[in-house]
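Run log // design_07
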């Protein structure tokens, strides 16, 4: 039996043949930390007396807040610059753009390489057949110091995209159609490989668009096998000759997903979740207040050119703000050279310097309460891009909508469209109080349960991105669940020793360690969920926070009930009746890290 792409790459970097399910130490070719996570990485390195393994393979990318408009971001960025200068580490500073794109364009990685970053969309590099993974601060610190991290090889799904792609159907439309098909947890715990006639024809920018949204499908990574066209694009960008890496013809796949794009029309994701994707025609005419073009999903030159074609000779509708942020400085300069920036400015757009933009609090692209935005970003979770509503769409649709002031497709700009109102209520803010977690690490835990019966609770709901500059765990607790509707007062009511019981795909979304550490800050002793987001699971294990995967519905628990947990046996029992349910017991890796009090404790 042959090997999948991820099995091949991990095997090469583990020094032995690996199959799905194995846990191995993996050599990391490029180790990146961003401005929000970078300061915490440095703190971990200094607190634990670690040294840098290979400065030439280690990088900082200051892409979340390249304006330095937030004081804490500015302080973290300067801390990074000073540390990097001491250690001889390359910093891609606030002028350079998004780190994952820089890694591709500057040749930090190539097909078959491995990369990790404090960016949950590090899996973008699957677009070139490389392995990338977003990880938390402790993982990145460990890789900075050891040059490797542990990793569990996931099974692989085969995605086949075929059919006749109609004119005006963008990679974003195809991606949203795939996301509609898979749902928010459709690739949970899986790697994926993309094949089919439509996939074969995709250029690098289009592959990046699709690969970047693996995270929104809860996937580990989405791979493309580089063809000669993509290898040529990489040669133009980096000056390097690369060889394609491909799965074996007899590679084993867990299952297949087929998408026929014949007849596909422009797609839009409704506010609240990227998986809420529908044909644009169903919400055509929705009034908007702002529009955003950029992000790691649609910030390449081709995306800018697509938008410019729509905006040429037109202006943004009165009362609408159009914000545009290219992914990298190279893209920005090429747009300047080719007159695209002039087209944007003539249309009345605000053009920012390269960076992550709307996905990062404090930079161009955020919206306010009651504001309706149409965006090319990859996420529209509540509060992710501000306090209003965010619809996701392609660059062409966003540009056309900005001109019309309504959500429309480009061929409808000159049509008489009846406006549809969209009401918006901004999220409530809470000011909870922090508490401390007990120091003990028992193998049997007893506690009062909090029943939060919801699936797909993302990291922005757990710990909102406007607090990402916080580095002290003691301060994090007061923000826990501060953006989860109905639970914004959780930190006020929870007690040390309590246990959270919740639904599937808990902790999906960002790679932020804060979404784990805020529970430690409050003294929560365990989290039991039907399943966990892949990065969240790693972060919790590495932090020594007990998390267990299982379905407790048979116990008929309600909030306030008391349960007993045996971590080694994988058993949860009711205190009052003794009824017991099985959960996944701790692995050897998990129990070792838990007993040590965290990954970085030796």
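design_07 sequence
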């Amino acid at each position: 039996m042959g090997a999948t792409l991820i099995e091949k790459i991990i095997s090469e970097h583990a020094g032995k043949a690996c199959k799905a399910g194995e846990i191995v130490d993996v050599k990391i070719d490029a180790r990146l930390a961003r401005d929000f996570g970078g300061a915490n990485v440095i703190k971990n390195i200094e607190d634990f007396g670690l040294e840098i393994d290979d400065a030439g393979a280690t990088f900082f990318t200051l892409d979340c807040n390249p304006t330095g408009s937030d004081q804490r971001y500015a302080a973290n960025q300067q801390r990074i610059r000073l540390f990097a200068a001491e250690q001889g580490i390359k910093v891609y500073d606030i002028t350079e753009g998004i780190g994952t794109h820089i890694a591709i364009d500057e040749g930090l990685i190539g097909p078959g390489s491995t990369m990790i970053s404090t960016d949950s969309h590090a899996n973008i590099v699957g677009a070139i057949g490389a392995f990338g993974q977003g990880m938390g601060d402790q993982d990145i610190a460990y890789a900075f110091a050891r040059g490797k991290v542990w990793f569990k090889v996931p099974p692989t799904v085969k995605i086949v995209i075929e059919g006749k792609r109609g004119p005006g159907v963008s990679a974003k439309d195809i991606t949203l159609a795939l996301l509609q098909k898979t749902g928010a947890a459709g690739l949970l715990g899986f790697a994926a490989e993309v094949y089919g006639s439509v996939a074969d024809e995709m250029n690098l920018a289009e592959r990046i668009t699709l690969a970047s949204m693996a995270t929104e499908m809860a996937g580990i990574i989405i791979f493309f096998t580089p063809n000669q066209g993509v290898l040529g694009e990489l040669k133009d960008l980096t000056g390097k000759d690369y060889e394609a890496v491909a799965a074996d013809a007899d590679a084993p796949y867990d299952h297949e997903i087929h998408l026929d794009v014949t007849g596909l029309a422009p797609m839009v994701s409704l506010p609240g979740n990227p998986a809420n994707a529908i044909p644009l025609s169903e919400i055509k005419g929705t009034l908007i207040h702002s529009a955003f073009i950029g992000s790691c999903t649609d910030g390449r030159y081709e995306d800018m050119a697509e938008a410019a074609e729509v905006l040429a000779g037109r202006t943004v509708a009165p009362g609408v703000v159009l914000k545009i942020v290219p992914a990298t400085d190279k893209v920005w300069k090429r747009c300047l050279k080719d007159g695209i920036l002039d087209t944007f400015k003539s249309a009345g757009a605000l053009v920012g310097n390269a960076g992550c933009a709307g996905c990062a609090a404090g930079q161009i692209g955020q919206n306010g309460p009651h504001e309706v935005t149409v965006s090319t970003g990859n996420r529209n979770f509540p509060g992710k891009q501000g306090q209003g509503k965010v619809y996701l769409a392609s660059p062409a649709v966003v540009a056309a909508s900005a001109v019309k002031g309504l959500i429309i497709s480009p061929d409808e700009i000159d049509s008489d469209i009846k406006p549809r109102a969209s009401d918006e209520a901004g999220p409530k803010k809470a000011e909870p109080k922090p508490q401390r977690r007990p120091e003990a690490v028992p193998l049997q835990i007893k506690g009062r349960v909090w029943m939060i019966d919801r699936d797909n609770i993302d990291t922005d709901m757990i710990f909102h991105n406007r607090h990402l500059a916080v580095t002290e765990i003691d301060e994090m607790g007061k923000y826990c669940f501060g953006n989860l509707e109905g639970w914004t007062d959780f930190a006020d009511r929870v007690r040390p020793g309590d246990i959270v019981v919740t639904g599937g795909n808990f902790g999906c979304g960002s790679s932020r360690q804060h979404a784990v550490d805020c529970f430690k800050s409050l003294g929560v002793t365990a989290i039991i969920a039907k399943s966990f987001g892949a990065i969240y699971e790693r972060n919790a294990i590495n932090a020594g926070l007990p998390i267990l995967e299982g379905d407790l519905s048979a116990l008929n628990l309600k909030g306030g009930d008391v349960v007993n947990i045996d971590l080694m046996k994988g058993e949860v029992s009711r205190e009052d009746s003794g009824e017991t349910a099985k959960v996944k017991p701790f692995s050897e890796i998990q129990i070792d890290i838990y007993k040590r009090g965290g990954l970085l404790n030796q």
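The first helix runs from residue 5 to 14.
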